[in-house]
Amino acid sequence: MKIIQEKWAEIHQQPVISFTMINDNGMEVTCINYGCIITKIVTPDKNGNYENVVLGFEHFPPYITNTPYFGAVIGRVAGRIQNACFELDGKTYTLCKNENNNHLHGGVKGLHRVLWNAVAVENEGEVGVRFSYTSPDGEEGYPGTVQVQVTYMLNNQNELVISYNARSDKSTLLNLTNHTYFNLSGNIKRDILDHELKIKSDQFLELNEELIPTGIFLDVTDTPFDLRKGKKLKDGIMANHPQIEVVGQGYDHPFLLNAHHDEEIVLWDPGSGRTLTVETDEVGVVVYTGNQLQEGMDIYGVPSRKYLGICLEVQGLPDAIHHPHFPSWILRPEEIYSSVTKYRFGVK
């Protein structure tokens, strides 16, 4: 196993460093210290062809705006916060409104648009990168100075393990995720409509017209959201269902997971034979099928379009601060935020 480290670009007179982890099977994961962005994941198909299975950009400049959040760590709070404000311990905090009237994915800057400290890590049987960043009190409107550490580790089981750890000196909100878009066809040969997705989930969250949870958990039974036995994505995306239509004809919904670290999310592309199994200790996953990907961006030589990638954003439930019956995002000074998600790549 090895890790290759090189200067890729520069921003604010600081180097943007690229790290490529390579395991003994030839699988590669490349990431950068700007936003902890995963730029490439190279895995074999059923015929042994190694190809990239994520969306990203060939060069650094598009990542500076990166409106689709390709590959980035999202925080301090992933998802939307209604009306871009919240109350915590009797005090009201106002955040920036960066999506209509709401706050999305940590704000204009967020954790996805900062340079992180990064060091290569080499252990027996695994290599990786440990990122760290201190988000100052008041950044993007959030209280507390938060020390965040994100670690990416690649092992010889073709698993990418992402670990999140954080502490705050004041009570604050924290809900982190990774926003990688997967396309298992390899080198973006096809869109994701023929991918099959299986999720161990009996309930999903109803969304309103602004894509904010209403607070109602809906039963997946007899709906396009019943993925318990697996479903071809296009069968759900093309369905005539109000919740499919409200997000632009597709999925952009939080699912409540029934199981953890037990093959609870499985994505499969029959054409390439590639599989992705996601296991996590997070309570939910937001499934986003790229319904709002703008056309015309150059993604490794392929023009962007709807349904070119799927995000599996494992995280706490969106807008939880406004829904007391959702699992809490609140991080107290005496607590440690900790979360682990494993992405295992295979073929069948």
TrEMBL record:
GO molecular function, one term: aldose 1-epimerase activity
Annotated catalytic residues: H179, E313
Source organism superkingdom: Bacteria
EC number: 5.1.3.3
GO BP: any one term: galactose catabolic process via UDP-galactose, Leloir pathway
Swiss-Prot/TrEMBL keywords: Carbohydrate metabolism, Isomerase
GO cellular component terms, A-Z: cytoplasm
Record field: catalytic activity: alpha-D-glucose = beta-D-glucose
Pathway: Carbohydrate metabolism; hexose metabolism
Binding site for beta-D-galactose: H179, T180, Y181, D252
Pfam families per the UniProt record, alphabetical: Aldose_epim (PF01263)
Gene3D superfamilies tied to this protein: 2.70.98.10
Similarity annotation: Belongs to the aldose epimerase family.
Protein name: Aldose 1-epimerase
